[in-house]
Amino acid sequence: MKKILRILWNSFLMAMQELRINKLRTFLSLFGVTIGIFCIIGVMSLIYSLKAKIQSDMSSLSSNTVQVGKWEFINSSDYPWWKFINRPEVKYSEYQFLRKNSKYASDMYYLNNTSADMHYNDNVYNGNVYGTTEEFNTIQNVKLSAGRYISGNEFTSGIPVCVIGNEVAIQLFGSSDYAVGKQIRFNNKSVMVIGVIEKEGQSIVNIFDFDESIISSYRFFATLYDVDKLRPQIIVRAKNGIDNTVLIDELRGLMRQVRRLNPTQDNNFALNDINMARDQVDSVFGVLNIAGWAIAGLSLLVGGFGIANIMFVSVRERRAQIGLKKAIGAKNFTILSEFLIESAFLCVLGGAIGLLLVWLLTLILSAIFPFPIFIAGSIILLALTICILLGVIAGIIPASVAARLNPVAAIRSN
Fold it and tell me: Rounded to two decimals, what is the model's pTM?
């Protein structure tokens, strides 16, 4: 153990000596490693943070849910766009039929939404108005910071009550603390605020932008708007142990039945598996990761050649020192290890500079983007591993040359 520690310490001292004596040469050699690590870690951190944000936004829909609507999330076929346009919107009566006849659904809700100007005294705010059925909170799990959620009786009776988003409360009342119990107006109707939704922050995929929204019962919503023209949708959650493909097959049959489609007619509705949307996100980010590695690989290749070059120069400049060490008993393995570790130290130093630059970049981007950019611990470990491996690979030939030097010839070469 003492021998290993001594080799590590000597290698570190030699690396620092090389950096101190030949600052410019060492810096230029490390520059490629720094840029390579900066590219890899920068791209991976951005992708990791963006993916985490999108997955967090998509988690508002349970993983075992299916959306029934007019449009497909991803049109992977040659189905023409004009046929999508001519499809009918899903109806509340179809939701009732599915709810009554589905054997594999545990919960489902019907949702409609539009935008509207919301008024309280002289304050006006334009936001989203959702009209939905009772099971909405069962699937979406709306969290409140004040007040309560809409009751079953209020859903059934269409009583004019609502819960509002944090941003709506701030814009209309100045604070979410004063919203509960107040009457607001939209579309010339008054509605009482009974709850305020907990602040969620900005969303990228914008599935439900609760901060800027009002949630009311569908029956009340239907008295204000022509619901068949507002792109409604049905969200269905499968029972525990039921695969989404089984649920989709059942829903397909039920929708064809309620719409009276004969066997030769195409489906005029879409069944969107939320899991497929998540898989599509994963595949997109997989491609971005590959592109990031391709860009950074060239920089690392250049950096590896730079490290190999500086190690060759270092071996040539220290031939007499190497010969003296071997003359007094240093083994080939010891010389080899010292130069390999020195090469790895230099790469780690270049990588550390790259990580520092990425960290500074994350501070800048976090202030600009609507979500935090961060460097995950696994990414830092990956960067350290890459640097060590690159150092060993780049230094193996120079270190081998140093280890095989004849001690007498090496001493005389000075």
Answer: 0.64
